Amino acid sequence: MASLLSSHLDQISLCSQSIADLPFPGPKIFTNALLSPNHDITALIRDTEQHERAIFHLAPPPMPSKSAGGDVTGPPKTTSNAGGTAARRQTAFPTGVRQPKSKAVAAVLGGDLYAKTRREGANARGKGDVDFEVLLEGAERLGAVYPIPGAAEKIAALRRRHSQLAANISHYEDRVARNAQELSLMNRSSSHYDDEEDAAEGEPGSEEADPEAEMDLGPLPTMEDLRREEEEIRELERKKRNLEERVEGMGRDLGGLMR
Predict the structure, then answer these.
(1) Are 107 and 226 in contact (CB under 8 A)?
(2) DSSP state of 220
(3) Taking the C-alpha atoms of 220, 225, 226 and 230 in order, what is their torsion angle to the nearest 10 degrees?
(4) Domain ranges of the chain
(5) How many angstroms separate the CA atoms of 80 and 75, rounded?
(6) Which GO BP terms sit in this record (predicted)?
(7) Which of 25, 49, 77, 145 counts the most CB atoms within 10 A of its CB?
(8) pLDDT of residue 78
(9) Rg (CA), the chain
(10) In sequence order, which residues have a C-beta less than 8 Å from that of residue 179 and are 6 or more positions away?
């Protein structure tokens, strides 16, 4: 009997030692307000962290309604007991607006931002335009509540990369438009010069043309110049496609970070 009691006491002592070794944070405002820090029990009681309060949030923000008035159509009211129960249930738990699946994430992001991130995620899956600022803002809010090592640095790097790629795309788009305009002007001037040359050959006495007028025309583009301009335009378009693919890759990275 004594040996059995001794084994139980040893087990209790080991459990107490393991509990005492747990790394709990020190008492905060809530603990000090309810219990005196002089008692040993305060070592086992602590205030909840921000991510824990978000997990057990009981009232997630409602999703924004698509209707202008925001009216929710409920079941028809009847005088029967079943109808009254359904009406009370509709009042207590409105089912006209779809609640978000991830209530903890919706509670952290808020209804509007959560809806925007869901739309952006659907657009990313459909290979449409993605608003990176919305995704980055949502990732920052989630990272502030659910800390992930290296997430803040990655979000900042993605923001810098997106800004640089957007500036590069804008620069190359302007350059492509400018080169296309110059190429159009060169083709127009070349065709205009050919028409004037054909008209001059058909008129008598065209050999005595004024040499100063010919000098005012300036150097005419050659076929080599046109081919070089077209090659440059194709190269710029290729760079633009590469930048757009990199932006889509950033969208996939952000989607993985949000999940």
Answers:
(1) no
(2) P
(3) -150
(4) 130-200+220-259
(5) 13
(6) attachment of spindle microtubules to kinetochore; cell division
(7) 145
(8) 44
(9) 36
(10) 229, 232, 233, 236
Residue with tokens 């899956």, as numbered in its chain: 125
Q: How many other CB atoms are found less than 10 A from the CB of residue 76?
A: 8
Angle at 250 between CA 247 and CA 252, to 5 degrees: 115
- Per-residue pLDDT for 208 more than 60? no
**Calculated CA dihedral for residues 163, 166, 167, 170, nearest 10 degrees:** -170
Place of tokens 């459909």: 126
Note the helical H segments in the chain. 2-20, 29-34, 50-55, 81-92, 103-109, 111-125, 132-145, 151-202, 211-216, 223-258
Query: Tokens 């159509």 — which residue?
Result: 73
How many other C-beta atoms lie within 10 A of the C-beta of residue 168?
16
How many Cα atoms are found within 13 Å in the side-chain-facing hemisphere of 79? 0
0.85 cut: is pTM over it? Answer: no
Rank 17-31, 47-61, 123-137 by mean pLDDT and report only the highest.
17-31
Please state, as a whole number, how many other Cβ atoms lie within 10 Å of the Cβ of residue 111.
17
**Nearest one of 133, 183, 186, 188 to 158, comparing CA atoms:** 133
The crossing angle, in degrees rounded to 10, of helices 132-145 and 151-202 is: 170
